[in-house]
């Protein structure tokens, strides 16, 4: 197979995306490849280590050499807040400065966690070919761990543990085509409360 043909196919049919989560206790990132034709998301790299922005960007660029230059890097929307970093600068501005000339920087949507989780769950379900839309490389131990441990509390809120890589996956999902169309997932307790409230309103009208 001609290497140039492979490169051209990859460039035309695959979108490489990095996601960075600055809010975690340690800066971390996930590298993904979006296959345009069959709408599959391949998670192919992860970074999770104690390092500053310069080191993080360097590691991202080294790892990207295996799959190609990213179309963009998506970051948590809250990263623009100055208080998230020391020295009065936001993580977003520092990252933008380091990545200038290499790729674009994009903010994720404001938190709509339930909608993003709903879409992730849909993409993890086996399709007609028996395979899910989200594929995870074997060596991504942290991503695999979090995918199997991520869940809801008894009150319906999302767990705030073991979620650093899941946050990155949500940012990627929120930046992809069709993200705005994702329906908001509602836990059973929320639906039950809504039905109970509807019953109360119906009884009020009947008694009026």
Q: Runs with pLDDT <50, length 5+?
A: 180-191
Tally of contiguous helical segments: 7
| Widest sheet, order of strands | 5-4-1-2-3-6
| Computed Rg | 20 Å
Structural commentary:
- The structure is a single chain.
- The protein is of the alpha/beta class.
- Helices cover 41% and strands 17% of the residues.
- It contains 7 helices and 6 strands, in the order αβββαβαβαβααα.
- Strands 5-4-1-2-3-6 form a 6-stranded mixed sheet, with helices on both faces.
- Strand 2 and strand 3 form a beta hairpin.
- Helix 4 packs across helix 6.
- The longest helix is centred in the last third of the chain and has 20 residues, at 188-207.
- It is globular.
- The relative contact order is 0.15.
- Residues 180-191 have low confidence and may be disordered.
Summarize the structure.
The chain is α/β, with parallel strands linked by helices. It has helices spanning 3-13, 53-64, 91-99, 113-124, 141-149, 164-175, 188-207; strands spanning 14-21, 28-35, 40-48, 72-75, 104-107, 134-136.
